[in-house]
Amino acid sequence: MLVSEAFPELSEELRELLRDKGETELAEQISVLKLVDRCRCGDDFCATMYTQAQPVACYGPDHRAMDLDADKGMIILDVVKDKIVCIEILHRGEIRMKLLAMLP
Ligand SMILES: [Zn+2]
């Protein structure tokens, strides 16, 4: 399942936020990101999605986290070696409800 199919509005929002930051290469990845799993931390405000298989320990030195300065809630992209591996989404109830329904 692709993130852009499951969450078309979110994908458009991500693309715009990335373009605003001048991250055009990352913006181009949005349309092909796979929805691999959701975060299972259990926090009731968390709607984080993994777009690559989770690393065993940590992401390592090539990892960067980028706050996209979303208008609603908080969105942070985790990027490893220029690939988006995780979309951290916090305080976005409508996305969380849909995500939980898709990936119980
Ligand atoms: Zn979480």
> How would the global form be characterised?
globular
- Hetero groups bound? zinc ion
Residues in helix, %: 25-40%
Query: Taking all residues together, what is the mean pLDDT?
Result: 94
Structural class: alpha+beta
N-C termini distance: 15 Å
The proportion of strand residues reads 15-25%
The strand count comes to 5
User: Largest sheet, order of strands side by side?
Assistant: 1-2-5-4-3
Q: How many whole angstroms does the radius of gyration measure?
A: 13 Å
List low-confidence stretches: none
The SSE order reads HHHEEEEEH
Taking the sheet with the most strands, its summary is: 5 strands, antiparallel
Supply the number of helical segments: 4
Structure description:
- With 104 residues, the chain is an alpha+beta fold.
- The chain contains four helices and five strands; from the N terminus they run αααβββββα.
- It has helices at residues 3-6, 8-20, 24-29, 93-102, and strands spanning 37-38, 49-50, 63-67, 74-80, 83-90.
- The protein has a five-stranded antiparallel β-sheet.
- A hairpin with a 6-residue loop joins strand 3 (63-67) and strand 4.
- The mean pLDDT is 94.
- Bound molecules: zinc ion.
- Zinc ion binds next to loops.
Task: Briefly summarize what is shown.
This protein has 104 residues and is α+β, with helices and mostly antiparallel strands.
Summarize the SSE layout with pairings:
Blueprint: H1 3-6, H2 8-20, H3 24-29, E1 37-38, E2 49-50, E3 63-67, E4 74-80, E5 83-90, H4 93-102
Antiparallel strand pairs: 1-2, 2-5, 3-4, 4-5
